[in-house]
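May I ask for a sample protein chain and its fold as tokens?
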Amino acid sequence: MSGTSMDGVDGVAVRFEADKPPVVLAEAFVGFAEGLREALFALQQPGENEIEREALAASALAARYAVCCHELLRTARLSPQQVRAIGAHGQTIRHRPEKGYTRQINNPALLAEMTHIDVVADFRSRDVAAGGQGAPLVPAFHATIFGAADETRVVCNLGGISNITILPAGSGQGGAVNVRGFDCGPANVLLDEWAHRHLGTPFDEGGRLAASGNVNQPLLNALLDEPFFEAAPPKSTGRDLFNAQWLDAKLSSFESVSPADVQATLAALTATTVAREIERHASDCRAVYVCGGGARNPELMKALETALTQSGVCGVPVKTTDALGVPPHHVEALAFAWLAMRCVDRAPGNLPTVTGASGDRVLGAIYPR
């Protein structure tokens, strides 16, 4: 899985067996070279010679996926013949479900050629074709491993974009009835952008820049003045909306705010938008479990606890998915391995209650080895 933060690819080798928790056999992370990151960032916006630039970036991306897969095979001591399939999400460069498309660049044919393993890719298009948002796709997987018989839980992914999955009591007992989920707004996508500008680093290590600043309430109010935050689900978003240009437009009237205060306010923006959605749609939840890169940011976790208390969802503990036995950085890659497994079995992978699709659909396209 390579997400909105575009720092690299997280991979897991996982064994699925019926009626048993998934078993992670190996994990790997392969970073992106600066040239690939720049190419992927550039493709977020219209530009010249896009078709060739996209094709070249897709092949370079597939090569990084192949490195990750070979590392997983080596670590898990597996041969390609022992692996049923690779689930390769690709890199989202445009997400416009309201126009009937979503675009994840990838070269799954090249990946199959380089690994000699079947590749499952293009998970989102079928849901969009059925009238859905194509995102988020992970709630069905969350329900299988994180649901509880006796309480409502919220799983919050703090990746580039924040999203939540609402798991009502009983949702983990062999089904995903009444499970809901949707994107809430920006998370690391803006925090990382600001850290890169002012620290020269890919992200704000340990949330230190945010911790050195204070939330600027007028700026926070301006950031919250965005129609997406008030839209009813199903809804999804990405860099098409929340990008450097959006941030700069919001900051144009706040030039005197220090970089540290901006970072603290961006953390508060993520926390506030998540907390508001939990209050609106899951006020009966008994715990919030965080995954994604934001789970490693103590300031962001603290901001989420504060925002939940201020929103009226008091006394709800905020933990990482480690508390449920799954490391936060495994969850997204695990989810797309699960979706690949569902595709191979010709089983649906979407939840219409989440995406708004007209029905259950098998997600993904298979590229044979």
Q: What stands out?
A: The mean pLDDT is 95.
